[in-house]
Structure formats: C-alpha cells, structure tokens
Amino acid sequence: MTPTASRGAAATVTARLSARDLPGGPDGSLRVPALLSVPRGPLLLVHDHRPRPEAATWRECGGALPDDLPNPNSLWLRRSDDAGATWSPPRRLAPPAAVGVRGVSDPSLLHDPRTGRLHLFAAAATDVGLFGARPPSRPARGGRPPEPGTLRLLHAVSPDGGATWDWEDLTALLAPTAERPDGVVGFPVSGHGLALARGARAGRLVQPLVTALAPRPPKPPAPSSTKAGRNLKTALPVAFGLLALVAFSVVWRIEAFVCLVAVAMCVGLWEAAGAFLNRGVRIPLVPTWCGAVAMVGATWTAREHIVGGFLAFVVSAVAVCLWRWAMSPARWAGDAAAGVFALAWIGFVGCFAVCLAAMPQGRWMVALLILMPAASDTGGWAFGVLWGRHPMTPSISPKKSWEGFAGSLVGAGAVSFLLTTLALGRPWYAAAIVAAAAVLCATVGDLSESLLKRDLGVKDMGSIFPGHGGMLDRIDSILLWAPACYAIMTSSIAV
After folding, report:
1. How far apart are CA 354 and CA 373, in angstroms?
2. pLDDT above 80: residue 469
3. Residue 287 CB neighbour total at 10 angstroms
4. Which of 99, 166, 201, 276 has the most beta carbons within 10 angstroms of its beta carbon?
C-alpha cells in the first residue's frame, strides 16, 4: 500500500493497486479492471475510479447502483514493465471537454498487432446510467450535445503505447438501422477485445458489447384491414405452437409447466414495466422478478394451498417498496405502487395456476385452466366476426360484441363438458358453472386489460408473439380465470 521507488528509475511506483494514490483518496472504489499484455511490451491496466455520490440525484436519472453511471466516474491508466511486480502511478484518461460527458466507466483495451495501435472502449453518460437508458434515436455528431436519456459509447486510439489518446464518440453505431430497428443500449465488455489471428477473417478486431434488457414502451401493432382483426397466417401457427409447448410440459413433467409459469410471469412483468414507462412510471424489475420466482417456488412447496404464494407475495411487496425507496426516496411511492400492483396481478394471481398443477389431477386441471379461456376467446372471436353487430363496451373494447359473448358461452360450454364431466368426473352442473365462470372471467379479464392499456396509452402490452401481441395479451384471461378455477374445483360444488 505504500509507494516505493523502483530500481533504476526515478518514477514512483507501487507494488499494489490502491485508491489512496488517486484524487479523492480512499473515498471511492476501484472497479472494472481492463488488463492488456502488449506483445514484447508492457502490461497496461485501465480501471474505474468511482467516487461516492454526494447526493441521491443520480438515482433520479436512472442509476441503479450507488457508484455507477451517471456518477462522475473516471478512467485511470497504470503501466508495468516488470510483469506486474511494480506499477506506475495512475494517470487519468479523460475525453476532451467537447465530448461533453459527465462520467466514464467500464473500459476495455484492444491491441492491433498490424499497426501496433491501442484501442480503448468505454461507456459514458451525462444524465442516465444503463438502467433506464434508451437507444439513441439520431446519430451523434461532433459538437452536438448528447441526446438526453442515452448511454454513450466512446472510443480512443493511442499510436504510442498509451502516452497519448485520440477520442471519438461511437454512439451513432447504437442508433436504429434497417437491420436493427430497435437500436441498442449497451456498453463494452470490460477487459479486452479480440484480434483474430487465423481464418478467413484474420486481422479483424472484435469488441463485444453488453446490451441492456431494459423494458421499453411497446410498439403499436401493424394495422390490419381484415375483418378478423389479425393476421391469421401468422397468428394460428403461433397459437398452436404455444398450446403444443404447454401440452408437452404437462405430459412430460408437471414441474416443467411450473417452470413455464415462472417464465411467463417474468416476461409479463417485463412487458408491464415497459407499458408503464409510457406514463413515466418505472417498475423495479429486479425485486419483482425475484418475487415472482419466489412466489412460484413457495406455492409449489405448499402444493395445493395458496398460503405459501401469499406469504411470498407479502415479503416481495415489502422488498419492492424498500428497493425503490433506496433508489430514490423522493420519487419512490408511484413506482413502488406500480411494482406491487404488477406483482399482485401477474405474480400472485398466477400462483393459482401452480396450485391447480399440484392437485391430484393436476394435468387435467392445467388443461381446464388453459383451454377454457382459449375456447371462450375462439368462440367469441368466431361469432363476433360472423355475426357481431352489437358492441358490449364500445368505449373500452369496440370489437367485443354481445354476439361474440354468446359464442364464448358456446365454445366454453363444449370444452367444459369434455373436461369437467368426462375427464375429471365432476357432475354436469359443475360443467355449467365452470363454463359460465370461465366466460365471465375471460371477458372481464380482457376488458380490464383493455382499460389498463387505454390508460397507459398502448395498443398491445408487447410484441413477442406475432399476430397476438405480448405475453400479457395472451394470458390476461387466464390470470383472472386461475383463482376462479381453483375456487370452483376445490369447493364442494364441483364434487
């Protein structure tokens, strides 16, 4: 820790890396080392110095960790000419003021053996960190101020072994293109890049990037001119593929279906977070994802009883509130409330599907859970397309009609008779109750999500399923039907 003089040199070196010889002293941290061994040359080390935040204002800009961007982080270069036994004093690597960044982090070094030049890649920020950033919508040009809300990618070149560096802004490479219409939010993989030495692409320099899986407001669906309201050539294969996946998981191992429930919850939470962004509300994804998985595990452990999932939901809701408050005490209430709502709507309600799977006739219960809303939606869609004339709720969902509602009763009634009476051995009146409840839940669930989407200003909650929208657009009916199905099948009325 103590600086010592190297043999045969007047420069001060240190045998250990420490934050004490940096401006600000130990009031900060050394992070993310990028180490490069130059052939027949020195060892070069570039690392972060991350000061402690003076206030919590950085969190208002989308920061995720107390020392991460957009804090005023800095990059420092150290050199060793004796295989790492001693190191030179740190030298700050700062982009010119014209670049206009607040903090620089996450360095990656790359040596070009053909030219001998050194390349340095780094992430930079002015007002936002990785969490909460969005792809640039326009190219970044010299002299133009950075676009608010974007994470920047910087590149520096040294022709003299690290003595001098020429900086440039590569953020434009992350902007949307024809091949990549969504653009990229990313930063360099810390460490070093690759120089390909063999093969058809020998000599190519490769710098990996980490891209952010950040929620984004969903895109509006492509307009449809057909009376069906969707592209059937795309929608039908996707629907059959999803049903086949669920069927395979149930037939193979019921635990596989439980895992699918957990995955569907996490995807649904991610979509909900993106939709709420349209209103400036940020759902904290990390605690909600962890909470959803915990609720599934607790529910499966308790088998047929929902008490395990409920207790996990309570703990997860508290964790979401504490997490969001720690990030930003000034603006935590709205985001935390949205996170708890998403946990209850997607996480806790989804736990009833796990309870049904854990019952003695779990496979048939899962079939009842999935096929009843599907039959209701299919019957309602067919009758609505053929004979729909009288809308149910034109201000919420103009395409829903009373004729479609009648079709839902017909489709659900037929499937309920097959599953409830023939497969599960329940009395005929139980089949009638199941059909009526499934249609009511499917309709209310669909209308409720339509009302939520209207309030959030989005058409679909996502776009991962072509012809269908997002995960939440597919499971909205199932989510409301799951607790009703559980209540009916565990009550004396269905025995």
Report:
1. 17
2. no
3. 22
4. 276
First to last CA, the chain: 75
What are the structural domains of the chain? 8-211 (2.120.10.10), 232-494 (no CATH)
121 — pLDDT class (breaks 50, 70, 90): very high
Instruction: Evaluate the CA torsion angle 199, 201, 206, 208 in order and state its sign.
Output: negative
Give the amino acid at 99.
V
pLDDT tens digits for range 205-247: 888 887 765 566 555 555 554 544 555 566 667 677 777 888 8
Question: CB-based contacts of 90: which residues, under 8 Å, 6+ apart?
Answer: 21, 22, 76, 77, 78
- Buried residues in 153-175 as b, exposed as e (16+ CB within 10 A): bbbbbbeeebeebebebebebbb
pTM comes to 0.60
